[in-house]
Amino acid sequence: MRYKKVSGEDLENLRRIVGEDYVSTDEDELAANAIDAFPGEFHMPEAVVWPGNAHEVARVLAYANENRIPVTIRAAGTSLSGCVPLYGGIVLNITRMNRVKEIAERDMLAVVEPGVIYERLNEQLSRYGLFFPPDPGSAVACTVGGMVANNASGMRAVKYGVTRDYVLALEMALPSGKLVKLGARVFKTSIGPDLTRLMVGSEGALGVFTEITLRLRPLPRKMVTALALFDKVTDATDAVYEIVRTGLDPAAIEFLSRKTIQAVTQFRDLNIPDADALLIIELHGRDEHVLEHMRDVERILERHGAFHIKSAEEEGERKRIWEARKGAYPSLLRISPSPLTGDIIVPISKITDMVAKSYEIAERYGVDMGMVGHIGDGNVHHTWFADRREPGSWERASKANEEIVRYAIELGGAASAEHGIGIEKKKFMRLQHGEAYELMLQLKRLFDPNNILNPGIMFDLEDVMAVELP
Ligand SMILES: Cc1cc2nc3c(=O)[nH]c(=O)nc-3n(C[C@H](O)[C@H](O)[C@H](O)COP(=O)(O)OP(=O)(O)OC[C@H]3O[C@@H](n4cnc5c(N)ncnc54)[C@H](O)[C@@H]3O)c2cc1C
Q1: C-alpha span between 10 and 22 (Å, rounded)
Q2: DSSP H/E element including 192
Q3: Atom of ligand 1 nearest to the CA of 163
Q4: Domains in the chain and their CATH numbers?
Q5: Residue located nearest, by CA, to atom 44 of ligand 1
Q6: Ligand 1 interacting residues, C-beta cut-off 6 A
Q7: Distances (CA, A) of 330 to 30, 176, 378, 400
Q8: Which numbered atom of ligand 1 lies nearest the CA of 144?
Q9: 141 Cα–ligand 1 center, Å
Q10: If you measure from the C-alpha of residue 203 to the centroid of ligand 1, how many angstroms do you get, rounded to a whole number?
Q11: Closest residue (by CA) to atom 21 of ligand 1?
């Protein structure tokens, strides 16, 4: 596939679309858009373009499509799977489009531009007693558009579900320059194939979201959080099954392994005794019943050998407990400068097997590793320690991660639960989807016949070029 380089004339035409100030070829600006939170790839674009509205997005796409210029869509750049301009061209940076257009309190929905930051949206929604629940670890920075593109989720998915469960409607710009509207402002429809849900998780391969209509939930009135420590990781994973099975409907069940506990204790000034596993459990509700239910959770934790349990109702104390979880990834980054972050998910009956296998793989490859994750839904992030400056370090981490991904798929799980495929996980697409992978490639060709959108992200360009439309 041959793409056209961005010329001086192209820059002039792009400036006519978005305005003089919103096209840049400045080296620092290009470098800032050449890498994201995945430390594996750095690729310079030829220009960065910041559209201000849906029509500008559509016109930039139409121009790039006509001229065969690759376009990489970028929001906050917190992707841990890698979404950078592998083939140069334009980075379409969506962060200027960051307005909350409407909060419809009675309909319990919000209409937003894609560049709005998750936490800012929830700050605004809290004034109405509403929230958009998925709560990724990157909440302070990531955008709603990036979340929809990756079907992101987080600490509360075990109770509230994932981004896909909240997207009611989308406006989307296609590579042809057409703007299409999908879905409706209601919680359910029966009106043919659900293209809205299909687009969630499409990682910018099929089009650019320019407006998103989100379903909202009432903020819970009462929350109680518990932290528990275990000497044996298997005791912790056994407790997880029981809590999920009893119908206590936890809003979060989070897990930290020994290495992660040590990192967070060292760097976050938290006084946590040494342990093999840490669980954080949170319950949400309307009233005092939540406290009774937490007593049931504590009994389960005790029965499974937790040697330290602390519950908190007061906000400051709850925040302190959450600090252990929210500080986990940044603390691990202090030990390992360029780690490979995994995102596997397994059926919850297989969590214990998966954790045991993880330790066995880490030892075999001689790679240090911390685990942290949304264990209530079987989703664990391995942080495989690596330093790209050290020969062989990244390769060892990649091989170890590859083994645990293959094992997760074998167990009936998936290569990614919430971070998306990006550049890093596309090698698992065939293994994950079998023959259905061909259908996905056909879909890509149908929406983006000239392969201008996010080339090399999620799908290998060679695979897309090789597939025939039926
Ligand atoms: C410290 C840390 C913790 C994290 N924790 C979590 C977590 O708990 N749960 C979780 O799910 N993720 C987590 N992530 C990963 C990441 O934050 C999410 O995937 C997030 O949704 C990405 O949003 P973004 O705005 O940064 O998008 P980007 O990284 O800029 O882009 C992500 C993808 O979305 C596409 N995209 C962006 N905007 C649009 C648009 N308008 N239209 C079409 N495609 C678009 C991009 O092309 C790219 O493929 C974490 C990341 C970090 C660094």
Answers
A1: 14
A2: none
A3: 11
A4: 8-93 (3.30.43.10), 100-218 (3.30.465.10), 222-329 (3.30.70.2190), 336-427 (3.30.70.2740), 428-466 (no CATH)
A5: 204
A6: 36-37, 73-80, 83, 94, 114, 136-138, 142-143, 145-147, 149-150, 152-154, 203-204, 208-209, 329, 418-420, 454, 457
A7: 26, 41, 22, 21
A8: 25
A9: 9
A10: 9
A11: 147
Joined tokens for residue 95: 């962060």
- d(Cα 445, Cα 430) in Å, to the nearest integer? 17
**Which two structure tokens, joined as six digits, stand for 138?**
């990157």
| Stated length of the chain | 470
> Measuring CA to CA, how many Å separate 28 from each of 5, 34, 115, 185?
19, 10, 21, 41
Q: What is the pLDDT of residue 72?
A: 98
Contacts of 368 (CB under 8 A, 6+ apart): 259, 335, 336, 362, 384, 385
Structure tokens at 353: 């097997």
Block means of pLDDT (10 residues each) for the chain, 470 residues, are 93 98 98 93 97 98 98 97 97 98 98 98 98 94 98 95 98 98 96 97 98 97 97 95 93 96 90 94 92 96 97 95 93 90 96 96 96 95 92 94 98 97 96 96 96 97 90
Q: Give the β-pairing of 308-312 and 344-345.
A: unpaired
- Cα separation, 210 vs 339, in Å, equals 33
Under DSSP, the state recorded for 467 is P
Give the position, in ligand 1's atom list, of the atom nearest the Cα of 74: 30
